[in-house]
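ok, trying the design again with the full structure, not the truncated one.
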């Protein structure tokens, strides 16, 4: 059924549009080779080319044989191709006209423009990758740090799929046991079956819990830690942003109230991606623009995953700072005692009544002192410093997380039912549900609308 939809041939430019070294146009479908052949002139006709070979030649107009572009064409016959169908990849000169000429000719054949993600969708429908692997391809493209890329690469290779398969395997065992039980109730010792169901449900629930535990870290790796730098005017917030970003992104002056708007910058610290937000210094003000800025600072604080509260060590704690400290109490935050190059006037005991010693970082941004300590404190806070070692399987996709939770709940229901000796065919429903919910992660039991929604997130030509 699925395959009848795939009989047409699709084409798209798979490289970024604009000028570049080369542009690659990808064509896929059961007829791809015979449909591109009339447009390609080379020593070996495309229809006689062996799989996985590259051919030099020209794209020609099929009407008059005029040479339209000079290209290299790669032939990959299915199922040993990305889409599992016959694939022809045309490497052309990387220019707008070149790409348009080739695409125009292709689209005059029985070839249509691919939808975003359609190549990957065919790889999925062809059974080459499952849904969680396809989704990891999107993550690969969007990765903002080396670490996030490695995690996505592992998922593309099937690390998450393997875990899901293992869990589902246990559920199938349970279902088989239950089935026998329903068919041959005379063989059953009721209490033994209940024990079996409880054991196996717990086992799978444990597996799910382990995966869910990785989800926080996974989300951070994927989306970055939203980090708000806040404090009173002139304490050195913009200086800190510049130091962490190693760039003069924000304006720094000795005039309090320099920063009026939220400034964003993406950085990575020990491979952890951070979205840094420099904000306007918080104080009472009658300046209309600054007032709006202060409001935005407060909004940034409430949305942040991490708050860096910057204080000027050369001044005593200000009333506004005490209010801020009250507000951020209990949140993930680090206190930066800046300007340590100047004599300290800060009441450290007062600080310690709000924050742990380990969350207070003395610094002098001006003299570049303490930056390493701050970076270490951030990685410890989020990954306990253990980021470099360990397994790279993280669940970060919200869809996967939601399904894992649902499957967990279904199994909890099965467990509770077994405990209460509820009839076995009722328990069967819960176990089957969990099996389906886990299956949806890898696309084994996914609706078409879901597939469309997922693949439409891809770029054209992927
Ligand atoms: N002595 C000393 N001066 C610093 C240090 N860090 C920043 N400054 C100076 O403090 C002044 C204010 O720095 P900014 O980074 O603009 O401060 P801010 O917190 O962004 O200020 P607003 O944008 O007004 O809220 C500048 O003159 C900086 O050079 C430091 O560690 N030691
Ligand atoms: Mg500033």
């Amino acid at each position: 059924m699925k395959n009848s939809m795939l009989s047409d041939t699709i084409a798209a430019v798979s490289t970024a549009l604009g000028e570049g070294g080369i542009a690659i146009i990808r064509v896929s479908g059961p007829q791809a080779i015979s449909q591109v052949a009339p447009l390609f002139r080379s020593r070996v006709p495309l229809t006689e080319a062996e799989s996985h070979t590259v051919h030099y030649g020209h794209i020609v107009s099929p009407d008059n044989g005029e040479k339209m572009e000079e290209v290299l064409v790669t032939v990959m016959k299915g199922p040993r191709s990305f889409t599992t169908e016959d694939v022809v990849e045309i490497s052309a000169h990387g220019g707008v006209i070149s790409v348009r000429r080739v695409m125009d000719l292709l689209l005059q054949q029985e070839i249509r423009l691919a939808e975003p993600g359609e190549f990957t969708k065919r790889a999925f429908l062809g059974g080459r990758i499952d849904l969680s692997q396809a989704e990891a391809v999107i993550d690969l493209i969007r990765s903002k740090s080396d670490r996030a890329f490695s995690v996505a690469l592992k998922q593309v290779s099937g690390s998450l799929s393997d875990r899901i398969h293992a869990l589902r395997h246990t559920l199938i065992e349970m279902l088989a046991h239950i089935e026998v039980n329903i068919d041959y109730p005379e063989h059953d010792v009721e209490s033994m079956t209940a024990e079996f169901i409880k054991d196996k449900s717990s086992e799978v629930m444990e597996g799910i819990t382990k995966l869910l535990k990785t989800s926080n870290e996974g989300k951070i790796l994927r989306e970055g830690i939203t980090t708000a730098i806040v404090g009173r005017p002139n304490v050195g917030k913009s200086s800190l942003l510049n130091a962490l970003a190693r760039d003069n992104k924000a304006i720094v002056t000795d005039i309090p109230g320099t920063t009026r708007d939220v400034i964003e910058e993406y950085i990575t610290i020990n491979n952890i991606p951070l979205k840094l937000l420099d904000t306007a210094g918080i104080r009472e003000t009658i300046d209309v623009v600054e007032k709006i800025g202060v409001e935005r600072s407060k909004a940034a604080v409430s949305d942040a995953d991490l708050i860096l509260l910057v204080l000027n060590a050369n001044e005593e704690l200000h009333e506004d700072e005490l209010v801020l400290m009250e507000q951020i109490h209990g949140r993930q935050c680090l206190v930066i005692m800046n300007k340590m190059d100047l004599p300290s006037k800060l009441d450290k005991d007062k600080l310690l009544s709000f924050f742990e010693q380990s969350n207070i970082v003395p610094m002098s941004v001006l003299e570049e002192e303490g930056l390493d300590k701050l970076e270490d404190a951030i990685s410890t806070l989020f990954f306990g410093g253990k980021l470099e070692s360990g397994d790279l399987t993280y669940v970060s996709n919200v869809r996967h997380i939601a399904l894992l939770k649902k499957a967990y709940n279904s199994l909890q229901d099965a467990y509770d039912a077994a405990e209460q000796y509820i009839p076995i065919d009722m328990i069967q429903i819960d176990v089957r549900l969990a099996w389906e919910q886990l299956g949806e992660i890898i696309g084994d039991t996914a609706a078409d609308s879901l597939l469309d929604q997922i693949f439409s997130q891809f770029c054209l030509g992927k």
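Keeping the full-length input from now on. The chain has a mean pLDDT of 90.
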